[in-house]
Amino acid sequence: MTTIATFTTPEDAHLFRMCLGSQGIKGFLLDEHFVQLFWYYSNTIGGVRVDVEDADAEAAVSAYKNYMTALRTGSYPLNPVRAWPVILLMSLLVGGPFILFGRHSHRESSKIN
Predict the structure, then answer these.
(1) What is the mean pLDDT of residues 39-53?
(2) Cα 18 to the chain's mean position, in Å?
(3) Which domains can be identified in the chain, with CATH numbers?
(4) Of the candidates 45, 43, 68, 48, the residue with the CA atom closest to the CA atom of residue 3
(5) Burial group, residue 37, by CB count within 10 angstroms (0-12, 13-18, 19+)
(6) Which has the closest alpha carbon to 67: 12, 5, 16?
(7) Which percentage of the chain shows pLDDT scores above 90?
(8) pLDDT value at residue 80
(9) Residue 104: φ, ψ to 5°
């Protein structure tokens, strides 16, 4: 087993592991559960490690370089979700999100006084 990359959060490690999986490389996460339980020790133990088989190490290093380049440049293969038009439309139709979430609790608190 060869360690290819380390991440401070398990979520980032899982994203990279899935990227490896899409290229046919099986990755394994080490110290994932420890970091989830004791997140403040993540830097102390070296974070969550992504390991691969020795035979796949060279291809995994290349995949890691491509993955990090895509993260830095923002050239993701998927388009980002633009939810603000839906939220704006729903707010206009309903009369504002504060009516949905805050109005009922405001009435109850005024009865107490």
Answers:
(1) 87
(2) 12
(3) 2-73 (3.30.70), 82-113 (no CATH)
(4) 48
(5) exposed
(6) 16
(7) 32
(8) 56
(9) -65, -45
From the CB of residue 74, how many other CB atoms can be counted at a distance below 10 Å? Answer: 7
What contacts 57, CB < 8 A, 6 or more positions away?
2, 4
Query: In this structure, which amino acid lies at residue 58?
Result: E
For 59, residues 6+ apart whose C-beta sits below 8 A from its C-beta are: 23, 25
Mean pLDDT of the chain: 78
Amino acid at 75: S
Residues 51-99: tens digit of each pLDDT:
999 999 999 999 999 888 888 876 655 555 566 677 667 777 766 554 4
What does DSSP assign to residue 26? -
Stated pTM of the model = 0.61
- DSSP code per residue over 87-109: HHHHHHHHT-HHHHHHHHHHHHH
